[in-house]
Inverse folding.
């Protein structure tokens, strides 16, 4: 009879080579390996397997604040302003872009044609005190600059607080 509070247990040794042995960690490891293999074959190696497709990651941006405006700067190398769209709606600034590039080379003994394309989208919450009707976007040498001017009230909203000893 088992002691109070203890449950009797019988321990059996199952040979590792036996196919019906329950090995939860082995099946878990196989499943994790399968997931990583599928992930590795899918997204990360797609550009290597398909040279005609290039994924454009969302561009990094710099956000700066001055006394009169907020400025968002994004580097978009190889793009034209006609392929970039900037919208402000419902308190959200959205920058979208699409890059399509085609290269063709004909020589006497060969013909080569490459295509690459991709798109991105970045969205930012527009801070309070921005005059949405005066937002401007400029594009020069692959750099997009979006200026969000502050309203007159937002420009003077800062109040300096004097720190007093306790």
């Amino acid at each position: 009879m088992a002691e109070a509070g203890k449950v009797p247990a019988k321990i059996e040794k199952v040979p590792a080579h036996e196919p019906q042995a329950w090995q939860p960690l082995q099946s878990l490891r196989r499943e994790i390996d399968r997931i990583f293999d599928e992930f590795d074959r899918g997204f990360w190696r797609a550009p290597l397997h398909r040279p005609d497709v290039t994924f454009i990651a969302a561009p990094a941006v710099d956000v700066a604040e001055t006394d009169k405006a907020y400025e968002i700067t994004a580097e978009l190398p190889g793009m034209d302003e006609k392929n970039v769209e900037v919208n402000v709606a419902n308190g959200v600034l959205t920058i979208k872009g699409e890059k399509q590039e085609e290269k063709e080379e004909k020589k006497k003994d060969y013909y080569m044609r490459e295509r690459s394309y991709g798109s991105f989208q970045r969205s930012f919450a527009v801070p309070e005190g921005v005059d949405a009707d005066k937002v401007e976007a400029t594009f020069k040498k692959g750099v997009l600059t979006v200026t969000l001017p502050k309203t007159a009230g937002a420009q003077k909203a800062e109040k300096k607080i004097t720190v007093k000893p306790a």
Q: What stands out?
A: Helices lie at 24-44, 46-49, 152-155. The chain has three helices and seven strands. The domain at 61-155 is CATH 2.60.40.790 (Immunoglobulin-like).
